[in-house]
UniProtKB/TrEMBL annotation:
Lineage of the organism: Eukaryota, Metazoa, Chordata, Craniata, Vertebrata
Gene3D superfamilies: acid-sensing ion channel 1 domain, YojJ-like
Signal peptide start-end: 1-18
Gene symbol of the encoding locus: Asic1_3
Protein's name according to its UniProt entry: ASIC1 protein
Species assigned in the record: Pluvianellus socialis (Magellanic plover)
Major place of residence: membrane
Length: 157
């Protein structure tokens, strides 16, 4: 009797497993799609990322003196740390700016530096349309981010 029950259970298990394996390889799927037409979309959050935090062309000798180490352009002894990998033209400009002989540093303001040397949305925004209207640099505002200020859109909801 026990052998009959065991064999019956084993046969039922094999039948169910075989059925499920066959069903799996049929790759059944159900796709349900509900479309809702939105009358007014909210402008998405947009972040402009740039590995170069500051425009090198806008960095002055005074900026370099006060923030050269922070910008990784100078070491703590006001020297250019790695000249082998630098572009020759950029290196020449940097060497000229890093010559602090007879230089009298002026007061330094980091916010003024960000405003002057940071990236400008007017130079970055090439084309933008939202709700059928053209976006302009005035539609963006600068927000504070962990690595400094940057442009963010400001559209009404």
């Amino acid at each position: 009797v026990w052998a009959l029950c065991f064999l019956s259970s084993l046969a039922l298990l094999t039948l169910v497993c075989t059925n499920r394996i066959q069903y799996y390889f049929l790759y059944p799927h159900v796709t349900k799609l509900d479309e809702v037409a939105a009358t007014r979309l909210t402008f998405p959050a947009v972040t402009f990322c740039n590995l170069n935090e500051f425009r090198f062309s806008r960095v002055t000798k005074n900026d370099l003196y006060h923030a050269g180490e922070l910008l990784a352009l100078l070491n703590n002894r006001y020297e250019i740390p790695d000249t082998q990998t630098a572009d020759e033209k950029q290196l020449e400009i940097l060497q000229d700016k890093a010559n602090f002989r007879n230089f009298k540093p002026k007061p330094f303001n980091m916010l003024e530096f960000y405003d002057r040397a940071g990236h400008d949305i007017r130079e970055m925004l090439l084309s933008c349309f939202f709700r059928g209207e053209q976006c302009t640099p005035e539609d963006f505002k600068v927000v504070s981010a962990p690595r400094g200020p940057g442009p963010a859109p400001r559209f009404p909801d």
